[in-house]
Write a structure and sequence with these properties.
By secondary structure, this protein is of the alpha+beta class. 38% of the residues lie in helices and 15% in strands.
C-alpha cells in the first residue's frame, strides 16, 4: 500500500514541478520505504528518485539535486509522485512511478491486486517483466487492453496511468472504495492525491471549509456524495474511472462497476456451502505478501473466521486485540471489552497474540495527531482503531480486517427492526431521519449559526441522489425482503464507505496495510445478491422490535457458513461492536479535555455553531441527561481539522 499524488495542466499554464514533492512529503506515512517523481512534457519525460532514497535507487537522478534539470522541464503537462510501502517485490525494481519497457505507459499506484499472478499469465510471452510486483502486471495489462481490464481486477486500489503516446491520463478506484483518491480542480490545474492533505500541501488550493458539506457531515456523521469538508476537494467514487487529457479541459468520470443488490434467489445449504468456499478462497488470496501478515482478532465470528483460514496457510499467525479499562464504567458499556473472547480464540487457533488496553486518557493523548491523519472525518469514533493499528504495526506490515461482513450479510438486526413493520413507500423518509446520527433531524438546525441553516437541503439532495441507485422493488420478494434489501444497499454505499475511509487513514498513519477479505470480488458479489431472508430472520426481528432484538437474528447464512471454520459457540454468539465506553469516559475522566477544546475562546470564535446550543448539548452529556458521545467526537474532530489545516 502506498501514497500517490499528481498535478495536471488543464490549460496553457504548465505544472509547477516543485509542488509535487511537498504533496508526497505530506503523505510520507503511507510509504516510508521509497519515493519517486515523474514529469511529462509534450515531447519529453523525466523520472527521479527522492533525495532521501538515492542509495536505494543509485541508477536514477535525484530530484532537485541539479537545478539545470528543473529549468529544462519547461512546458510540463503532468507531474506524478509516489510514496512506497513495500509489500510485494521489496527490491528497487518496484520503484514508482513505473513505466512499461517502451516508456509509453506510466503508473503511480496505491493498492494490492490479489489475482495479479493469475492475470500475469495472460500477458506472459507478450511482455518482458523487470519486477515481480503487481504494479507492473497492471501496466502490462493496460498496455494490451486499456481501461477494460479494470473488470478483471480483484483487489483494493487507486491509481493514475498515463499514456504518453495518446496524452491520456486515467484515475481509477476499486469497485468498493477500499482505497481513497481525492482530486480538486483549480483555475488551470487538476490536483489529486491519496489524502486531502496531499492536495492542500501543494499550495494550489486554499483550505476552506465547505458549509454545505459541513451541514451534511453533522447530519449523518458522513458525506454521502463525492464531497469533503474542504471546499473544492472531491472523492472519486468507488468503481469509477476518470479520463483526462493534460493540457486541455477534457475531464470525464464514468462508472465501470455497479453494485446492484439484485437479490438472486440463492437459498439453503447451497448458499451456505458456496459462501464458506468463497470466503476461504478470499482469505487465502489476500495472504499474498513478501512481508509478515497479521490480523485483528476481536473475539467475534468475522475476525475469528479470517484468522482460522489464514492460520492454516501461514507458518505463524500474528493477531491483535484492543480492549478497554472498564473501571468506573456502568450500564451497557460494561460489556464492551472483548479481550477474554479474543484470548480464547487465539488459544484455539494457535496464534501469536498481542493486546493493548485503552484507558480514559488515551483519547486526549491521541487526538491531535489522529485528527491530522483523519483529514476526511467520517462515521463513528476511531481512537480505538488508532491504538489497534499502532500495536499491529510493531509486528507486521499487513493486517487482515473483518470490515464489511456486517454490511454484506445483515449484521445490524436492531437497526433493521424499526423499519420492517412499515410500508416500503415510506422507507426513504424513515431512513433519512434515522441516519441523523448526531442529533434528531428536527433538533439539528438549532446547533448551527443562522447563516448555515440554509444549507440543510444539501443533506437531503445527497441522500436522494444515493437512493436513486437503489434496487427496484422485486415482485418475487416479500415487502419485508424488499425493505431489507434497500436498507442494505444504503448502508453498504454510505456507512461502509465511511468506515473504509477511516480504516484507510488509521492504518496508513502507522504505515500498515489493512486488507478486507469480505470485500473480495467473488464473495462480496455473492453476498450482495443473496436473498435478504437468508441474512436476517425478518419475522423474528419485526416481532421483537428495536429493544428486544438478539444479534443472532442477523447474518444467518454467514453463521452457518462459518461453522466450517469455527466452533459453534463463536458462530452463535451475540454480536459486539468495537467501541470504547466513551459515554462514561466523556462525562468522567475526559470532561476537562473536552471543555478545554470545545469551550475555548479559539473554538467559540468560529462562525459555524450557535455557542449557547453547543454548551447546552455538552452539559446534557456531562449531567447524564443524554448521550452525545458521537456529537462530541465530531465536534472535536472538526475543531482539530480547522486547527491543522485552516488556521
Amino acid at each position: 500500500m502506498c501514497g500517490i499524488a499528481g498535478i495536471i495542466s488543464l490549460a496553457d499554464k504548465p505544472v509547477p514541478v516543485g509542488r509535487i514533492e511537498p504533496a508526497c512529503d505530506s503523505i510520507a506515512h503511507r510509504g516510508p520505504d521509497d519515493a519517486g517523481y515523474a514529469f511529462f512534457g509534450e515531447k519529453w519525460a523525466k523520472s527521479f528518485t527522492d533525495k532521501d532514497f538515492a542509495l536505494c535507487n543509485p541508477h536514477m537522478d535525484v530530484f532537485g539535486r541539479d537545478p539545470q534539470v528543473a529549468k529544462e522541464m519547461t512546458g510540463c503537462l503532468l507531474a506524478l509522485g509516489h510514496r512506497r510501502l513495500s509489500i510485494i517485490d521489496l527490491s528497487s525494481h518496484g520503484h514508482q512511478p513505473m513505466s512499461t519497457s517502451d516508456g509509453r505507459y506510466w503508473i503511480s499506484y496505491n493498492g494490492e491486486l490479489y489475482n495479479f499472478k493469475e492475470l500475469k499469465r495472460r500477458v506472459r510471452g507478450k511482455y518482458r517483466f523487470r519486477s515481480s510486483s503487481d504494479t507492473e502486471v497492471i501496466l502490462a495489462l493496460w498496455a494490451e487492453c486499456g481501461p477494460a481490464v479494470l473488470k478483471l481486477f480483484n483487489g483494493i486500489f487507486a491509481f493514475a496511468i498515463y499514456d504518453r503516446k495518446e496524452n491520456r491520463l486515467w484515475l481509477a478506484r476499486d469497485r468498493f472504495g477500499v482505497k481513497p483518491l481525492y482530486y480538486a480542480e483549480t483555475a488551470k490545474h487538476l490536483v489529486f492525491a491519496s489524502e486531502t492533505k496531499g492536495i492542500l500541501a501543494t499550495g494550489m488550493l486554499n483550505a476552506e471549509i465547505s458549509p454545505e458539506n459541513l451541514y451534511e457531515y453533522f447530519s449523518f456523521q458522513n458525506i454521502l456524495d463525492d464531497g469533503t469538508l474542504f471546499r473544492g476537494v472531491k472523492l472519486l467514487p468507488p468503481g469509477t474511472i476518470a479520463e483526462i487529457k493534460p493540457g486541455s479541459r477534457e475531464f470525464r468520470i464514468s462508472e465501470y462497476c455497479r453494485n446492484n443488490f439484485e437479490a438472486l434467489p440463492r437459498r439453503g445449504e447451497d448458499a451456505a456451502s458456496i459462501t464458506s468456499t468463497l470466503f476461504g478462497e478470499a482469505v487465502a488470496r489476500q495472504l499474498v505478501s513478501d512481508v509478515e501478515v497479521g490480523a485483528y482478532l476481536s473475539g467475534g465470528m468475522d475476525s475469528g473466521s479470517i484468522v482460522s483460514v489464514a492460520g492454516r496457510k501461514l507458518k505463524r499467525m500474528f493477531t491483535f486485540t484492543c480492549g478497554f479499562d472498564l473501571t468506573n464504567v456502568d450500564g451497557i458499556e460494561q460489556g464492551f471489552d472483548e479481550r477474554k473472547n479474543a484470548e480464547k480464540l487465539s488459544y484455539l487457533l494457535q496464534t501469536e497474540h498481542y493486546d493493548v488496553v485503552l484507558h480514559a486518557g488515551d483519547m486526549p493523548a491521541a487526538m491531535e495527531r489522529l485528527t491530522w491523519h483523519m483529514d476526511d472525518p467520517r462515521v463513528g469514533m476511531c481512537h480505538q482503531n488508532w491504538y489497534a493499528a499502532k500495536l499491529a504495526s510493531r509486528f507486521v506490515k499487513v493486517c487482515l480486517s473483518g470490515t464489511g461482513g456486517d454490511e454484506l450479510f445483515g449484521g445490524y438486526p436492531w437497526r433493521y427492526a424499526r423499519f420492517l413493520k412499515q410500508k416500503y413507500d415510506d422507507l426513504d423518509s424513515s431512513l433519512f431521519s434515522y441516519w441523523h446520527r448526531l442529533l434528531p433531524e428536527v433538533e439539528l438546525p438549532g446547533i448551527f449559526s443562522p447563516d448555515l441553516t440554509r444549507f440543510s437541503a444539501k443533506a437531503k439532495e445527497s441522500f436522494t441522489g444515493l437512493m436513486r441507485g437503489a434496487p427496484d422493488y422485486l415482485e418475487d420478494l416479500t415487502e419485508q425482503e424488499n425493505i431489507l434489501q434497500k436498507i442494505l444497499f444504503f448502508e453498504f454505499n454510505s456507512f461502509l464507505r465511511g468506515l473504509l475511509i477511516t480504516e484507510d487513514r488509521i492504518s496508513m498513519a502507522h504505515s500498515l496495510e489493512a486488507r478486507v477479505p469480505f470485500l473480495d470480488n467473488s464473495l462480496a458479489s455473492l453476498a450482495i445478491n443473496l436473498s435478504p431472508s437468508l441474512k436476517v430472520d425478518l419475522e423474528k426481528s419485526a416481532r421483537n422490535g428495536y429493544f428486544n432484538y438478539t444479534a443472532k437474528e442477523g447474518k444467518l447464512i454467514l453463521r452457518k457458513a462459518m461453522e466450517k471454520f469455527l466452533p459453534v459457540e463463536f458462530t452463535r454468539q451475540h454480536k459486539q461492536g468495537f467501541s470504547p465506553p466513551d459515554e462514561n469516559w466523556f462525562r468522567g475522566p475526559s470532561t476537562d479535555y473536552i471543555k478545554d477544546i470545545l469551550l475555548s475562546k479559539r473554538t467559540l470564535s468560529r462562525p459555524w455553531f450557535d455557542k449557547k446550543q453547543i454548551k447546552t448539548r455538552l452539559q446534557e452529556h456531562f449531567s447524564g441527561k443524554k448521550n452525545h458521545r458521537l456529537l462530541i467526537w465530531s465536534l472535536l474532530s472538526f475543531e482539530w481539522l480547522q486547527r491543522h489545516y485552516v488556521d
